[in-house]
Amino acid sequence: RSLFIQAGWNPRGMQNLGFASAMAPALADLYPDEEARSAAARRHLELFNCHPYAAAAIVGGAVRLEEEVASGTASPQDVSSFKSSLASPFAALGDGFFWLALRPAAALLAALAWPYAGLYCVALFLAVYDSIHLAVRIWLFAAGYQKGPAIIEILSRAHIPAATRGLKMGAAILAGALAARGVLLASEPHRPGNGVLVAAVIVAGVLFLPRVGLGRRLPLTNSGKDLWWRTNTRKKSARCATRWDCTPGPLRSSCRPRTSSPATWSCSRMSRR
């Protein structure tokens, strides 16, 4: 039922109808009394807005808390507080991972496979995207039910931000490969696969070489820094003339203090005045 949590969206309660529908089977088992079941259902008709995939963790945690409410070890207010406190963090987490990283990467992979797979590239997109997103949904629901309010501890060890960055880098590599393929397909003597490989290597180098300390040696990755230095050297020279030696170079090395004492610095490498 959590697959349809967005289906009942409305401007007043947003995803409250979908959330209450997802909770309905659990509430029917936990509250045989109709009046108690109605009161529990009303708790889940409050305003709720989250990422529809990441909300699976909150559904699992809410089921766990409803079990505690039914047994008398928790109060109904704990359920509402749990939902309201975690909705925004999980919304941001889901937007970054699913909408901004996983979906573009899967779409670019399918577009890259189109000349070779034809319409089967649609099936490739669905296979890649749904296999990951459904697995994450199941894991989030299970983790939410197992830990309840302590679900944040599990997410802190899941390395989701690192996975998001990795997917974004992969999407950038695929975008470069897709652009090169489009250019090389227009010239008959070249094979598209060679252009895809070359473009992927170039984009990967631009992304990863600065991380290992080689970016400053490459004009391609250092051009923005050099442009910043050229446009700001004249502005800095006036206020750095007395206590600073200005030396040509990239960003963060244009002005250096004549004295080693930070207390006498009049301006800094980047923005300290």
Q: Which key features would you list for this structure?
A:
two-stranded antiparallel ribbon, 67% helix, 273 residues, mainly alpha, disordered C terminus, 2 strands
Describe it.
- The protein is an all-alpha fold and 273 residues long.
- It contains nine helices and two strands, in the order H-H-H-H-H-H-H-H-H-E-E.
- Among the domains are: 112 residues, no CATH class; 73 residues, no CATH class.
- A two-stranded antiparallel sheet has the order 1-2.
- Strand 1 and strand 2 form a beta hairpin.
- The protein starts with 15 loop residues before the first helix and ends in a 16-residue tail after the last strand.
- The C terminus is likely disordered.
Please outline what is shown here:
The protein has 273 residues and is an all-alpha fold. The chain has helices at 16-30, 34-43, 55-71, 76-117, 120-147, 151-156, 160-185, 192-208, 219-240; strands spanning 244-246, 255-257.
